[in-house]
Task: inverse folding
């Protein structure tokens, strides 16, 4: 019923990402919400004659999209690794640095050394940077603690960031990220600890929304990943996987076997993996920040994914080693320039498909009944969001219908 809306935006260019039309575009549109949910949207000229709202704003043609969703980040960590950037510029590879005791393990040292407040203080500005340019839902992984207390601290900090900023944070437990140094010669013991103790304990504490692993030669095997996923399944938790980043381990097919939410990275994904993902409805999450920062030359098989009809999402992979990327919009830009996605694909990748990669059906599109997570941009056409390189284009963000942050 019109007449009792909380908020009405008039004369907006709506990129709804609902339906198959390019960007789900509605020109000269209007959108209204009530009690945190979208109550009406369409052409402004079709607004019911008696429509009123507590607040009405004329956007004069400005673009409005769903709040962006960053479905793969490691944004809680201690310290930084600018020194490794330097080493790689001098010829060292990511794998070499990792084998020499740098890489993930150096972030583990810094993360373990930080108190919960300290970790929160270091991580919050990164979440703020994402939010400032339109991200309203983000996933945050553990995986730099690699011991019960430190993993718990990371997940608690992730939850606290969500509360502090009023955003949705979905946590993923990534205990199988790297072998902690104290288990150097006891790989199997660490895997057992993660599967039999850490995961069930943290899940029982309500800290885990999904389970992830790094399935790679320098990390954990497909057989170990399978055991982890079996435990996740017993606990009723969805799974996802860092798969086929540096080599083809059959990880995509494995996570699809468990009807996983997503397989992420995928530079070395083959045909069997694509077929399995399509069958299971597993989203392909591409992470062009890591591709760029590692100066990879082998791109994920975008054309084959597109042809198979596998939904593609784009995320920052925000992490201190391979993707110190503080902008999801820039990730979308890199997806276009480096991976040859169209702006339409890249933007569905940071909205509708990213929401699906988190198993969240109530957002990522603009439609009646969806959460009123939306962004008004200093832009008029959706393609501008991946065309401008850097900067902050978000003018105003609403989360569940409430304005957050200052207007720009
Ligand atoms: N793959 C990645 O790109 C990040 N983790 C992973 O499993 C990198 C994490 C790091 O280098 O700190
Ligand atoms: Fe990652």
Result:
């Amino acid at each position: 019923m019109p007449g009792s809306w909380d908020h009405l935006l008039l004369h907006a260019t709506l990129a709804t990402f609902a339906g198959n039309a390019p960007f789900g575009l509605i020109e000269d549109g209007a959108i209204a919400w009530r009690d945190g949910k979208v109550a009406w949207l369409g052409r402004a000229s079709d607004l019911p004659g008696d429509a009123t709202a507590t607040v009405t704003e004329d956007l004069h043609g400005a673009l409005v999209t769903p709040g962006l969703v960053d479905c793969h980040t490691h944004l809680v960590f201690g310290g930084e690794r600018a020194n490794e950037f330097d080493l790689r510029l001098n010829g060292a590879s990511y794998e070499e640095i990792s084998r020499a005791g740098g890489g993930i393990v150096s972030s583990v040292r810094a993360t373990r050394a930080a108190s919960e407040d300290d970790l929160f203080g270091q991580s919050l500005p990164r979440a703020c940077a994402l939010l400032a340019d339109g991200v309203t839902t983000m996933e945050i992984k553990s995986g730099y603690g690699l011991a019960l207390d430190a993993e718990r601290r990371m997940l608690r900090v992730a939850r606290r960031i969500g509360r502090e900023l009023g955003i949705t944070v979905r946590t993923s437990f990534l205990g199988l990220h790297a072998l902690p140094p104290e288990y150097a010669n006891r790989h199997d013991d660490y895997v057992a600890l993660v599967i039999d103790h850490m995961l069930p304990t943290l899940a029982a504490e309500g800290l885990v929304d999904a389970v992830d692993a790094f399935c790679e030669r320098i990390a954990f095997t497909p057989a170990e990943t399978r055991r982890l996923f079996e435990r996740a399944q017993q606990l009723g938790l969805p799974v996802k996987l860092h798969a086929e980043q540096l080599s083809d381990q059959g990880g995509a097919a494995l996570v699809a076997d468990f009807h996983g939410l997503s397989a992420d990275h995928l530079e070395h994904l083959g045909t069997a993996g694509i077929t399995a993902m399509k069958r299971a409805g597993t989203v392909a999450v591409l992470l062009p920040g890591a591709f760029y920062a590692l100066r990879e030359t082998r791109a994920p098989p975008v054309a084959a994914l597109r042809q198979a009809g596998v939904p593609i999402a784009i995320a920052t992979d925000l992490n201190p080693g391979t993707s110190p990327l503080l902008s999801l919009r820039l990730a979308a830009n890199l997806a276009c320039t480096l991976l040859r996605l169209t702006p339409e694909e890249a933007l569905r990748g940071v909205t509708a498909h990213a929401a699906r990669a988190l198993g969240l059906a109530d957002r990522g599109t603009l439609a009646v009944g969806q959460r009123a997570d939306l962004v008004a941009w200093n832009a008029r056409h959706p393609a501008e969001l991946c065309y401008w390189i850097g900067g902050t284009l978000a003018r105003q963000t609403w989360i569940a219908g409430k304005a957050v942050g200052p207007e720009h």
Q: What stands out?
A: The two ends are 32 Å apart (CA to CA). The chain is about 35% helix and 20% strand. The CA atoms of residues 64 and 376 lie 4 Å apart.
